[in-house]
Amino acid sequence: MSAVVEVLVPSRGALLRMALLAIVATVAVALEAAPTGLHPYSLPSPDLLALAIAIFAVRRPDSVPILLVFALGLMRDLMTDLPVGIGTLTLVLYAEALRSVAPVLTRGSLLREWLAVAAALFGMMALQYILVLLTFSQPPYFLTLGRQWALTAAAWPILFFLLRWGCGIRPAPADGREARHGT
């Protein structure tokens, strides 16, 4: 019976990391929603929310529950210009895909993790594009989408190292127990 309770109730460390993810994600959405330029050649903002969720999903999968990702995605959809629901759906699928390959990615190099996150981002953006087309709405231009993907992929190392050394987000111990002096 105690094994069931341990699975259903997150640890104190996982709850703290969930709170940290919520704070980081809220700041990321606020930065994404800020206008970056109004002229036609201005660069789109990188998808910082997807990057934050990717880092947490790969490094500490226990702190990225589906309901939290859903709530964060819905908050972003309502605050930015994404179609409500499409961004949330693709963000949840993206987080779950990265959580499923997290054990493999954390055993490899950072370059492999970066490439996997970039590939998952590409898949998420492609699915968003297809879903927007299916709703008979005007999707973003390919060039704008390509720029946003490139900027988002290029921003991964910066956010990764900020969260790694600034907030202490490290891979979970191999035995599944919490580390004594870290998160």
Q: Could you characterize the architecture of this molecule?
A:
The chain has helices at 2-8, 12-33, 48-59, 66-79, 86-106, 110-134, 142-166. The protein is built from seven helices and no strands. With 183 residues, it is mainly alpha-helical. 69% of the residues lie in helices and 0% in strands.
Arithmetic mean of pLDDT: 85
- Please state roughly what percent of the residues sit in beta strands, choosing from under 5%, 5-15%, 15-25%, 25-35%, 35-45% or over 45%: under 5%
The number of distinct β-strands equals 0
Based on Cα principal axes, name the global outline: globular
In DSSP terms (H or I, runs of 4 or more residues), the helix count works out at 7
Largest sheet: none
Q: Quickly give the structural class.
A: mainly alpha
* Rounded Rg: 17 Å
Write the layout of secondary structure elements.
Layout lengths: L1 H7 L3 H22 L14 H12 L6 H14 L6 H21 L3 H25 L7 H25 L17
Helix pairs in contact: 2-3, 2-4, 3-5, 3-7, 4-5, 5-6, 6-7
Summarize the structure.
By secondary structure, the protein is mainly α. 69% of the residues lie in helices and 0% in strands.
Keywords:
183 residues, mainly alpha, globular, disordered C terminus
